[in-house]
Amino acid sequence: MADSLQEEWLEIGRIVAPQGLDGSLRVYPNSDFPERFLEPGDRWLLKPGQSTPESVQLLSGRYLSGKGLYVIKLKGINYRDQAETLRDAKLVVSAGDRLELEPDEFHVSDLVGLEVRLQDTGQAIGTVVDIYAAGNDLLAVQLKSDGVTTTPSQPTNSKPASQTQGQNNPVLIPFVYDIVPVVDLAAGFIEITPPKGLLPTD
Q: Suppose 18 and one of 3, 72, 83, 146 were both cysteines; which one would form an S-S bond, judging by CB atoms 3.0 to 4.6 Å apart?
């Protein structure tokens, strides 16, 4: 999504595949608020190649246990071939429609782009480039190489950070307090206390 769109819209999920034959859709969530996918009502959809989202109506939704995905039904999408055309489309909401956060909760869009520092030394080691929903959310951190952050590439699955190889692949760091004790949105950084073996340089 372009920078101007990022200012106006928040991505809450991405359609990854059809589910069955009735037009149902599998959605990879980019939000910690289940009601975005479960409660019927108006939503916005940004289709691949489009620059402006269009209004859609969510009829129903359910969580796909064990998959980390939601299955949703949109009004007017009744067949699998219609659902196929929405693959990789993004569900978005107005930036002004942010839900109220509890203490120590964060919007995903606020975490992407933060500098990552080691708490014990203050050394900047990389940048948060994405968030992956799992049992605990995973921060995808692009590590610096010779002082320059390498070009991000998308991991193909949610392997533990110690199994993510190659200097161009982001390292996946569990977003839990013991490992990420400091999130300073105002200053634009997080601090981590990685256990031995989490980072490839350990």
A: 83
